[in-house]
């Protein structure tokens, strides 16, 4: 088992109100799986993905990745984990405005102390993969939503991570672009990457090997889909 | 409209209280420093400006170029010139002779020193100083007349209505009785003789006997001339060479003249009163002077502090403009014109600046007395001056800080802003502008910091530098006014009896010597005709033990050798005899000896007097560190046959505290000479005036440096806090991509400090040039090395790093998920 979440809970406390974003989540993902998470807006999908991506900590519960208990690790080890194993595609892209597309993508490799030449090679191939090489020297604000989406994907795959987390990677795209992105993800999955993807599109969810439905912070259905 | 501007400014202040506070504080400090240092500069430039007819008053200076010494200008000129001047130049309306003197007032057995001047009765006709009591026309016409300053009158009598009161003066042990005939008004502006506490007529006896009234070669005071017209200054100046040739020449045997060709070593010039304060920095015996470059540098420092503060305001305003972009876009969509928006933002900037300037003015009130005490100058807040500058500062810095943001903001195209999810595309340009401003700010601040550090090192250096003799455990007294062998012996015995005295000696020179005598010697038996003008000194027994000079070659005097005993006054005057002497290192070098050893056993002569060099000692620095040490010849006087000429007693003591020793020595002195103050002092106290000026100015620069660094750091801090907010999101992304907290901290610190580092690179050469030229004004100086720059730069970098560290840590520690939401 690659990922094993048990009794995961995430509470948000503000001054008076307490929101339960996630409640008693149990989820296992095997290496090489392609999982689609579905559910209505506000049911906790992004929160779950954030916890999987270790950029948010659960209030309680355990998160095992391979042989490691991630909730026990300190910040520095978590940073190293993200650096080495994780590719993250955000709902709102989260590209850095002050850097060109090329540099944005390179950022995924910079923290690995990879030699410059190898980095450039990887960046070039990632951009080719998603078809935005001609926009390499543009800034994010000069790109359309779809192009930014693809740049974000290129950044996530440049590091050849074991786990790709994608939060509505097709949310901003038209049907054709959406299909292209799904192609890329399927291709990566075929090459061995584990993918957890949030989507509102049932047709895209159908392309995954397994589907998880959420409602009000709970997993209500977890079904494997036969191919 | 005004209401809208006011509301807008208030809303901004409420929305960003920290930024607003930093902005106002920075500007207030800048304005305060600018005004305060401006007041100081104005004060220095106002010297003598309030003296009536100051433009046609001049001082007659002497220029000497004598063998073996660098030529120099002296404010003291022989009074023999005065009657000839009156005869030769009808352009002269009036003339006055002024002799500086420290007079003691004796009251109830206690001596009080007063800064005094002996002057001609024409004094008040030349200098139209105001009297609050008495009449200028007759205040100094009687020999027993005496004019007091307002302050001195208060000190002596506790009131200013003191006409007719009696005062007993003591000068060099001589008592005279005087009657107060006038009280000087406190002058509105500083100027010549503004330190005068007592003015008395020159005693008639002195006019008839003192050599400075009889001989061209002797001077004891200054000559001021009041001319009929300003243009007469150049008319007379052009004729002074002929005047010297005509009036100062005479047969070589004529003691009163300067020989057959006086113009070869002597000339005269006129120094306008209005230029004196800065001019006198290079003149010996001049009035209290200031280095114009230093004064200007202080002014520039103040101006730069204001510029730094303005740069801050610009910086913050552009940073905030970014945050207001959306508001502007909405306003424009709702129909606001570009002009209206421009006026709105400009108005807000001016309002903020005006508030800051008011605060700056209030701070200036507080700082001015501090600067006055630090600089030792009686600077006060002059409202005429301040209120003239104030609106200029408000408008100037208001425009500077308002114009760029106002233009940029009013130009934003609403669609661009509302469409873009984040910053408008102008962001990168603004960021570059902000960084450039930080570079400029820190370049200025670091330059000032480096300069201040060098000034501090140099002042410490000259204070503690080796002066050739051992300063600690040494006390030096006033010159003994009696040229009498018996009295000098009595004094020696009285002082010797004081417990704690380890060694005791007399010398005719001492630290900060009151008189210096020189004469020209030539090297005997030498192919080259080397002539050196040597400073004359006589040392008593135990001189070596008292001052501890370093012997570089040969030996010190020893009474065993008959020839060691120096000449008596008769032999000196006639120039006869053979004697052994010690010279200082400079003298040995001037005579052309490459090593001190080479000088030993050589013979030098002054007419018929032959002096054999038996030893060479390292230079004694009795004079200011700005002046070179002059070549010196020392004779020995064991006080058996001949008295010293006004010897200066020096005492080396141990096993006693300095203050106790002073009390005991002064008491012992009083048992021999009850009418003359002994004034035993440490060398530090005696030479205070040499070091005080540089130290005071150093303090002003330190103040400027602290202000500059403070303002620059305020700017950096607000920039960092702004950047931190702006970059939170980016840092969240970087963390998601696996950046560790350490990497983030290094990244942010690097980004914050890069402009500061660049600033240091720019500042270093500027500071180097400035300090090299400043140091060249010192004879004794430190070597400008990398250590000074590195220390100052690392200090500035450290402070800058501390300034941004808090913001950096806050951002670096933020949780990525939360940071990513911070959109
Ligand atoms: N920082 C926060 N503070 C308080 N409540 C939060 C916070 N972040 C998320 N929530 C709440 O947690 C719940 C889950 O939010 P989450 O973003 O995971 O929803 P989502 O399923 O991704 O929705 P969408 O499909 O709209 O993206 C929501 O009710 C949200 O209001
Ligand atoms: Mg979501």
Automatic annotation (TrEMBL), chain A:
GO terms for molecular function: ATP binding. Residues 6-227 form the ABC transporter domain. SUPFAM superfamilies: P-loop containing nucleoside triphosphate hydrolases. The keyword Transcription does not apply. Pfam families: ABC_tran. It comes from the Bacteria. CDD domains: ABC_MJ0796_LolCDE_FtsE. The keyword ATP-binding applies. InterPro entries: AAA+_ATPase, ABC_transporter-like_ATP-bd, ABC_transporter-like_CS, ABC_transpr_LolD-like, MacB-like_ATP-bd, P-loop_NTPase. Keywords: ATP-binding, Nucleotide-binding, Transport. This is ATP-binding cassette domain-containing protein.
TrEMBL record, chain B:
Residues 301-411, 705-816 form the ABC3 transporter permease C-terminal domain. It is a multi-pass membrane protein. PANTHER family: ABC-TYPE MACROLIDE FAMILY EXPORT SYSTEM PERMEASE COMPONENT 2, MEMBRANE COMPONENT OF TRANSPORTER-RELATED. Keywords: Cell membrane, Membrane, Transmembrane, Transmembrane helix. InterPro entries: ABC3_permease_C, MacB_PCD, Macrolide_Exporter_MacB. Pfam families: FtsX, MacB_PCD. It is found in: Cell membrane. The chain crosses the membrane at residues 21-41, 298-317, 341-363, 383-412, 433-455, 700-725, 745-770, 782-805. The lineage of its organism: Bacteria, Pseudomonadati, Pseudomonadota, Alphaproteobacteria, Acetobacterales. Residues 20-242 form the MacB-like periplasmic core domain. This is FtsX-like permease family protein. It comes from the Bacteria.
């Amino acid at each position: 088992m690659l990922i094993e979440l048990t009794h995961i809970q995430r509470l948000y406390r503000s001054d008076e109100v307490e929101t339960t974003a996630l409640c008693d989540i149990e989820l296992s993902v095997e290496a090489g799986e392609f999982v689609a998470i579905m559910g209505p807006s506000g049911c906790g999908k992004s929160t779950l993905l954030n916890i999987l991506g270790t950029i948010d900590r659960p209030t309680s519960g355990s998160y095992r990745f391979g042989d490691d208990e991630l909730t026990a690790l300190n910040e520095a080890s978590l940073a190293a984990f993200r650096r080495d194993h994780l590719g993250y595609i955000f709902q709102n892209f989260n590209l850095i405005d002050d850097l060109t597309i090329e540099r944005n993508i390179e950022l995924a490799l910079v923290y690995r102390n990879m030699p410059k030449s190898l980095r450039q090679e990887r960046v070039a191939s990632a951009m080719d993969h998603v078809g935005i090489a001609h926009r390499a020297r543009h800034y994010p604000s000069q790109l359309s939503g779809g192009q930014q989406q693809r740049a974000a994907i290129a950044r996530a795959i440049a590091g050849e991570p074991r786990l790709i987390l994608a939060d509505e990677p097709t949310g901003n795209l038209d049907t054709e672009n959406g299909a292209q992105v799904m192609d890329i993800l399927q291709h990566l999955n075929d090459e061995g990457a584990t993918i957890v993807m949030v989507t509102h599109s049932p047709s895209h969810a159908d392309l995954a090997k397994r589907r998880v439905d959420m409602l009000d912070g709970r997993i209500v259905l977890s079904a494997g889909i036969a191919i | 409209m005004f209401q809208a501007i006011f509301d807008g400014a208030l809303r901004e202040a409420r929305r960003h209280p920290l930024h607003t506070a930093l902005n106002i504080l920075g500007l207030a400090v800048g304005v305060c420093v600018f005004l305060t240092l401006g007041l100081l500069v104005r004060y220095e430039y106002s010297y003598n400006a309030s003296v009536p007819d100051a433009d046609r008053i001049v001082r007659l200076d002497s220029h000497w170029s004598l063998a073996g010494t660098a030529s120099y200008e002296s404010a003291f000129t022989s009074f023999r010139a005065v009657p000839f001047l009156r005869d030769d130049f009808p352009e002269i309306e009036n003339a006055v002779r002024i002799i500086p003197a420290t007079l003691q007032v004796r009251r109830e057995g206690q001596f009080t020193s007063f800064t005094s001047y002996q002057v001609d009765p024409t004094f008040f006709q030349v200098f139209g100083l105001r009297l609050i009591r008495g009449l200028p026309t007759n205040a100094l016409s009687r020999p027993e007349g005496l004019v007091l300053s307002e302050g001195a009158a208060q000190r002596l009598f506790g009131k200013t209505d003191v006409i007719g009161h009696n005062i007993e003066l003591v000068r060099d042990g001589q008592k005279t009785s005087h009657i107060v005939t006038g009280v000087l008004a406190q002058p509105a502006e500083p100027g010549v003789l503004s330190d005068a506490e007592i003015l008395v007529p020159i005693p008639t006896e002195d006019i008839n006997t003192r050599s400075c009234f009889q001989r061209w070669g002797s001077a004891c005071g200054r000559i001021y001339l009041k001319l009929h017209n300003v243009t007469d200054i150049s008319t007379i100046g052009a004729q002074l060479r002929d005047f010297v040739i005509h009036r100062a020449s005479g047969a070589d045997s004529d003691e009163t003249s300067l020989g057959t060709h006086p113009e070869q070593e002597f000339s005269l010039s006129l120094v306008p009163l209005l230029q004196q304060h800065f001019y006198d920095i290079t003149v010996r015996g001049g009035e209290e002077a200031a280095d114009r470059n230093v004064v200007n540098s202080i002014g520039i420092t103040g101006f730069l502090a204001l510029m730094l503060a303005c740069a801050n305001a610009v910086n913050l305003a552009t940073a905030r403009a970014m945050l207001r972009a959306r508001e502007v876009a909405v306003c424009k969509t709702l129909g606001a014109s570009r002009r209206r928006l421009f006026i709105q933002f400009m108005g807000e900037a001016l309002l903020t600046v005006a508030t800051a300037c008011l605060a700056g003015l209030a701070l200036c009130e507080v700082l001015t007395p501090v600067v006055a005490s630090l600089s030792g100058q009686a600077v006060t807040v002059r409202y005429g001056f301040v209120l003239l500058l104030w609106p200029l500062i408000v408008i100037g810095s208001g425009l500077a800080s308002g114009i760029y943001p106002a233009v940029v903001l009013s130009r934003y195209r609403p669609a661009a802003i509302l469409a873009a999810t984040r910053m408008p595309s102008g962001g990168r340009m603004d960021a570059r502008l902000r960084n450039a401003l930080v570079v400029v700010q820190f370049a200025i601040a670091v330059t000032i910091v480096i300069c201040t550090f060098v000034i501090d090192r140099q002042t410490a250096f000259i204070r503690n530098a080796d002066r050739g003799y051992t300063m600690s455990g040494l006390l030096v007294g006033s010159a003994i006014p009696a040229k009498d062998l018996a009295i000098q012996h009595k004094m020696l015995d009285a002082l010797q009896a004081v417990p704690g005295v380890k060694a005791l000696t007399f010398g005719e020179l001492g630290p900060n010597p009151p008189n210096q005598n020189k004469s020209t010697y030539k090297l005997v038996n030498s192919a080259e005709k080397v002539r050196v003008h040597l400073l004359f000194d006589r040392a008593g027994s135990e001189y070596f033990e008292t001052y501890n000079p370093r012997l570089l070659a040969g030996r010190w005097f020893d009474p065993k050798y008959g020839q060691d005993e120096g000449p008596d006054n008769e032999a000196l005057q006639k120039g006869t005899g053979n004697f052994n002497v010690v010279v200082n290192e400079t003298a040995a070098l001037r005579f052309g000896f490459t090593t001190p050893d080479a000088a030993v056993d050589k013979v030098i002569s002054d007419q018929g007097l032959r002096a054999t060099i038996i030893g060479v000692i390292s230079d004694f620095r009795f004079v200011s560190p700005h002046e070179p040490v002059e070549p010196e010849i020392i004779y020995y006087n064991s006080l058996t046959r001949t008295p010293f000429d006004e010897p200066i007693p020096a005492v080396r003591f141990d096993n006693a505290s300095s203050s106790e020793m002073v009390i005991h020595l002064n008491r012992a002195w009083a048992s021999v000479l009850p009418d003359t103050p002994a004034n035993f002092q440490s060398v530090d106290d005696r030479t205070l005036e040499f070091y005080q000026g540089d130290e005071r100015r150093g303090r002003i620069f330190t103040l400027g440096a602290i202000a500059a660094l403070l303002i620059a750091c305020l700017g950096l801090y607000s920039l960092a806090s702004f950047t931190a907010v702006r970059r939170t999101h980016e840092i969240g992304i970087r963390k998601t991509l696996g950046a560790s907290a350490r990497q983030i901290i290094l990244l942010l610190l690097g980004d914050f400090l890069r402009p500061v580092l660049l600033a240091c690179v720019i500042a270093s050469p500027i500071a180097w040039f400035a300090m090299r030229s400043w140091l060249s004004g010192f004879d004794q100086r430190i070597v400008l090395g990398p250590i000074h720059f590195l220390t100052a730069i690392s200090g500035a970098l450290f402070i800058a790093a501390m300034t941004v560290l808090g913001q950096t840590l806050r951002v670096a520690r933020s949780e990525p998920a939360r940071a990513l939401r911070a959109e």
